[in-house]
Design goal:
The chain is α/β, with parallel strands linked by helices. Helix content is 32%, strand content 20%.
Length: 313
C-alpha cells in the first residue's frame, strides 16, 4: 500500500463503521478513511476515488454486498475484505467467487461491542495484505451470467494420469480457480489437483460448486484416493495431502511439518508430485498471500516440470 493508505468502510451500521476504523487505526495509524452506509452510495464513491482496500458488509439497504461486488469487479476491481454476520459456507464461498480477497465473520448480527472480537483476525489479514501490496494486483472481472449445468463426463474405466496440473492458491483464489476450471479442457492423460487455503469444511462445498458447473468430475480428496485421469481434485481444508506411488497413484494425508504454515500445504503437494510426474508436472501458483508454494515450485523445476506463477503486480 501507499504511505497513507486509503481504506473505505461500507456498512449500514454507524457503530460498526466506527469500531472498524478504531481497530484499523491501532494497526495503521497513518491510514485515511472514507465511509458509506449502503452499496449504491459506496459504489459511486469507489468509482470517483478508488481506495487501496475496502471493507464490505453484505446486509445493506438498496444494494447488498453481493450486488456491489458483481458491479465493482466488472467495472473497477479492488481488494475487498467482506466483514459480515452472514458467515455460513454458502455466503462465504459466494463472496470469494465474486472476487472478495477474504472474509471475516462478525460475531453477531446485532450492534454490539462483540465486534471487537475480530480485532486479532483483522490485524492478521491487514498485515498480510500490507506486505504484498495488493492495491497493485490486477483482479479479473467475474462472469455473472447464469449457465446451465453441463453434461457430465464420466471416464469409462479407471485410468492413471501421466500428467498432473497442480494449482495452488490462497486469498482471492476461489473466483480465479472457478474461471480456470470452467474454461479448461482436461486431456485423457491428465488430472488436476487444487490446493486452496481454506478452513476445514469449506473445501467440500467448494468442490461441490465446481462439480455442478463443470462437465468432468470434481471431488474433495479422501485419504488414499486413487488418482484418476480427467478428474479435478480439491485438497481438504485442515489436512495436508501428498502424492504417493505404490502399485498405483494415490493421494495420501500427511502430518503437518514444522514449515507448513497452511493446511493444505501447496509446498507439500508440489514436492511429492514433482519426483513422480517429473517433466509431466505443471505447477500453477495463483493469487494469494504468504510464501507457500515457493519451495514446491523449486522442486517441480528441479525435476524437469514447468511452473507458472501469477504476476503480483
Amino acid at each position: 500500500m501507499t504511505a497513507a493508505p486509503h481504506i473505505m468502510i461500507i456498512d449500514d451500521s454507524a457503530y460498526s463503521r466506527r469500531a472498524l476504523k478504531q481497530m484499523v487505526e491501532e494497526l495503521m495509524p497513518e491510514a485515511r478513511f472514507s465511509f458509506a452506509s449502503a452499496g449504491d452510495e459506496g459504489l459511486q464513491m469507489v468509482l470517483t476515488e478508488p481506495p487501496d482496500l475496502l471493507f464490505l458488509d453484505l446486509e445493506m439497504p438498496r444494494m447488498d454486498g453481493f450486488t456491489f461486488l458483481r458491479i465493482l469487479m466488472a467495472r473497477n476491481p479492488l481488494p475487498v475484505i467482506v466483514i459480515s454476520a452472514l458467515n455460513d459456507e454458502q455466503n462465504i464461498l459466494k463472496a470469494l467467487e465474486l472476487g472478495a480477497l477474504d472474509f471475516v465473520g462478525k460475531p453477531t448480527q446485532q450492534t454490539s461491542t462483540r465486534i471487537y472480537e475480530i480485532r486479532d483476525e483483522l490485524g492478521d489479514k491487514l498485515t498480510l495484505i500490507n506486505s504484498t501490496h495488493l492495491r497493485q494486483r490486477e483482479v479479473k472481472a467475474v462472469e455473472t451470467i447464469p449457465r446451465p449445468a453441463p453434461e457430465k463426463l464420466v471416464p469409462a474405466v479407471h485410468r492413471e494420469p501421466s500428467h498432473l496440473i497442480a494449482i495452488g492458491a490462497s486469498t482471492g483464489g476461489p473466483g480465479t480457480i472457478s474461471r480456470i476450471i470452467e474454461n479448461i479442457q482436461i486431456q485423457p492423460w491428465a488430472s488436476i489437483v487444487i490446493i486452496q487455503h481454506m478452513p476445514a469444511g469449506f473445501t467440500s462445498a467448494f468442490a461441490d460448486r465446481l462439480n455442478r458447473t463443470n462437465p468432468f468430475p470434481v471431488k474433495e480428496i479422501r485419504n488414499l484416493d486413487r488418482i484418476e485421469s480427467q478428474t479435478v481434485y480439491v485438497c481438504p481444508g485442515g489436512a495436508n495431502v501428498g502424492v504417493a506411488k505404490g502399485r498405483d497413484l494415490r493421494f495420501e494425508y500427511v502430518p503437518a511439518r514444522d514449515q507448513d504454515r497452511y493446511e493444505p500445504s501447496i509446498d507439500l503437494l508440489f514436492e511429492t508430485a514433482a519426483p513422480i510426474f517429473r517433466a509431466n508436472c505443471l505447477g500453477i501458483i495463483l493469487t494469494g498471500m504468504g510464501s507457500d508454494g515457493t519451495v514446491g515450485a523449486r522442486s517441480i523445476r528441479e525435476h524437469g516440470g514447468t511452473v507458472v506463477a501469477e504476476d503480483p503486480t
